[in-house]
Design a protein that fits this description.
The chain contains 13 helices and 15 strands. It is an alpha/beta fold. The strands form 3 sheets. A 7-stranded mixed β-sheet has the order 11-10-9-12-13-15-14, with helices on both faces. Helix 1 packs across helix 2, helix 2 (about 55-75) runs antiparallel to helix 3 (about 80-100) and helix 4 crosses helix 5 (about 140-155). It is globular, with a radius of gyration of 23 Å. The chain starts with a strand and ends with a strand.
Length: about 375
């Protein structure tokens, strides 16, 4: 069990260390309060010293923002190469997270945060961390993420294709980009599902919140098996399926990619960017070496019924960033003994695609999200 250590006066203290991104515990920790200046905080954090905050909660948030602004000013300038821009952005984001993660808070054994003007974070922490056993130290940055995720979980996110709300959990990919959901909602279902509607089956691989499984069930698929390798995603999908009243049509299964058996339709929306995540929280966005994409393609033929289709939902952003070529994708499809029956495209509508100040704006503005209809070759 990892711990952090610090000294107040002549008294030595320890606390359990927790990091959702599996960050190592700081080697040195000092106490900080409202007197701490942002420049001094940045210097300590960049040197690897953690700051255990004992001042006002809102002042801690302001200090975190001030530290972030100072870090951003020191990040390297971006080049004209999209791939180099992406690499610099990832490196800068990793450095930023590492430095800001050095501002810590201490949670009591019931997750009470005993700082002035601190919110009640007990329920948010319980949902994310599970039952508490002892006091623990976490980064303020992580705790703010836990609080924000708790609000999303309570309020939910409106999904027009479902005419309902989906409630994401902390660490589960959130369907804030609706274009990929709309592709699944409006693309014509395979003939096999229409020929045998009473026994039609679909698999939703990497279900996350369960949103695509719910869309398929609402479209009339009799049985949908939703899988994921993340226990959090499985719990999240299960809750959403129950909330939507679809437990008689959707089975949540895992942790696996492919369930047993075959289906008329197999849907997969893998992480779009072939890069290494910095921790478990980023696994819904980054897929090292496109591992999930290749696993889906390699296993698809063996899990399709005669006349069935595989729907691959994928952005071409990696192509515009120089991380993967279209030819590499087509070669992977062919190598899996599949062929493209059709491809339906849509343009993203999220604000970042129109943000000209984004260093990756050129790539984002050219991005297309596609649903590839794949069938097996003879």
């Amino acid at each position: 069990m990892s711990t952090i250590r610090w000294t107040e006066g002549h008294t030595h203290h320890t606390a359990h260390w927790h990091s959702e991104n599996a960050a190592s515990p700081p080697r040195r920790t000092v106490v900080a309060d409202d007197r701490m200046k942002a420049n001094d905080a940045c210097r300590h954090a960049c040197e690897g010293t953690a700051l255990l905050w004992q001042g006002d909660f809102h002042n801690a948030r302001q200090l975190l923002h001030a530290m972030g602004r100072r870090i951003d000013r020191r990040l390297p300038r971006y080049s004209t190469s999209p791939s180099e821009n992406f690499r610099l952005r990832r490196r800068g984001s990793s450095h930023r997270a590492r430095v800001l993660g050095k501002l810590l808070v201490l949670l009591d054994d019931d997750y009470t945060l005993t700082l002035r003007r601190a919110p009640d974070v007990r329920e948010a922490c319980l949902q994310t961390y599970g039952p508490s056993k002892e006091p623990m130290a976490v980064s303020l940055r992580e705790l703010l993420g836990v609080i924000g995720a708790h609000q999303w979980r309570l309020k939910g996110i409106d999904v027009p294709a479902l005419r309902a709300r989906i409630h994401p959990h902390y660490g589960v990919f959130t369907p804030v980009r609706g274009e990929y959901v709309d592709l699944v909602a409006h693309t014509s279902l395979p003939p096999a599902t229409r020929h045998r509607p009473a026994t039609s089956t679909a698999f939703d691989l990497g279900t996350g919140t369960g949103v695509l499984a719910a869309v398929l069930a609402r479209r009339g698929i009799s049985r949908v098996v939703a899988t994921d390798i993340s226990p959090r995603a499985l719990a999240c999908a299960g809750e959403n399926v129950h909330r939507l009243g679809l437990t008689d049509r959707i089975e949540v299964s895992g942790p696996v990619l492919f369930p047993e058996g075959r289906a008329d339709l197999v849907v997969c929306n893998p992480p779009w960017l072939p890069a290494c995540p910095t921790g478990p929280i980023e696994q819904g966005v980054y897929d090292p070496d496109s591992a999930m994409l290749h696993s889906f393609l390699a296993g698809l033929s063996a899990h399709l019924r005669p006349g069935g289709e595989g729907w691959l939902i994928l952005s071409d952003l990696p192509e515009h960033l120089g991380l993967r070529t279209r030819q590499q994708l087509l070669h992977a499809i062919q190598a899996a003994h599949l062929r493209v029956a059709d491809k339906i495209d849509t343009k993203p509508q999220h604000p970042r695609s129109k943000d000209a100040t984004d260093p990756l704006h050129t790539a984002r503005s050219a991005e297309t999200t596609s649903l590839w209809r794949l069938i097996t070759t003879p």
